[in-house]
TrEMBL record:
The keyword ATP-binding applies. Keywords: ATP-binding, Nucleotide-binding. GO terms for molecular function: ATP binding. This is ATPase AAA. Residues 27-202 form the AAA+ ATPase domain. SUPFAM superfamilies: P-loop containing nucleoside triphosphate hydrolases. InterPro entries: AAA+_ATPase, KaiC-like_dom, P-loop_NTPase.
């Protein structure tokens, strides 16, 4: 039975991810997805985004790594065809270009206050679900945040952003943040861990010659059905995300 308060991640015929996560992501929540480079944050985000769009939700995906071409190619390789949702404006894709005087620089190349500009970009917050992948890269490239870090005021900077996110989710929207914890100070990420309604930790584990990936569900407020503590998964070209096993710690 569908829960009104949950945004379904869909694809029930293809994988068990939606079922493992209790039937979807609660509306009005901040989702923190944390994991080192290669742990699968982008792939899981892309799977979330594709399933959400298939279920009728509108999605904004901001990537600090992929261009729109790269995004389409990557989604295609996972058999998540995003061309139609992009053309029909069910999905808004934005590339945060830090290096080449792109989206977040002035004509003279001067870096702007990224976080402020993000907050002011109204169009991107109109969607039901907004992904910031990777959020720590936005942090690290924001000169205002850098200045606060130099004064050991990471927490203050984080709290200002959090109050903005709270305003967004009060409208029933979902904000998904992906973070590489090795790239940002614990002081900066701590407040986001504390306030996340859903906290997923992705990790890679070497088992013999195999590398296994898993989602550790640290927190899941407002869950539907029972949510697994640990969800094993793999990322397969031509298939997408495959749920490997379920074990409850």
């Amino acid at each position: 039975m569908p829960h009104d308060n949950l945004l379904s991640l869909g694809l029930g015929e293809r994988d068990r991810l939606n079922k493992e996560l209790g039937g979807g992501i609660p509306r009005g929540s901040i989702v923190l997805m944390e994991g080192d480079y290669g742990a699968g944050k982008s792939a899981i985000s892309q799977r979330f985004a594709y399933g959400l769009v298939q279920e009728g939700a509108s999605v904004t995906m901001m990537s600090t790594e992929l261009t729109v071409r790269g995004f389409i190619d990557q989604m295609h390789s996972l058999e998540y065809d995003m061309v139609k949702p992009l053309l029909q404006e069910e999905l808004l894709f934005l590339h945060a270009d830090f290096d080449s005087g792109g989206a977040f620089s002035d004509d003279d190349g001067e870096r702007k206050e990224l976080l402020k500009r993000l907050m002011d970009a109204e169009a991107m917050w109109n969607s039901d679900v907004v992904f910031l992948d990777t959020f720590d890269a936005i942090f690290r490239n924001d000169p205002t945040f850098e200045a606060l870090v130099r004064k050991n005021e990471e927490r203050q900077a984080a709290l200002e952003i959090i109050s903005f996110f709270r305003e967004i989710i009060s409208q029933g929207k979902v904000v998904v943040l992906t973070v590489d914890p090795s790239a940002v100070d614990d002081e900066a990420i701590g407040p986001f861990r504390s306030i996340a309604d859903v906290f997923l930790e992705l990790e890679m584990i070497e088992v013999g010659n195999d590398i296994r990936r898993q989602i550790n569900v640290k927190r899941f407020a407002g869950m539907g059905e029972q949510v697994g503590d640990t969800i094993g998964f793999s990322v397969r070209s031509g298939t997408g995300i495959v749920i490997e096993s379920r074990s409850v710690a």
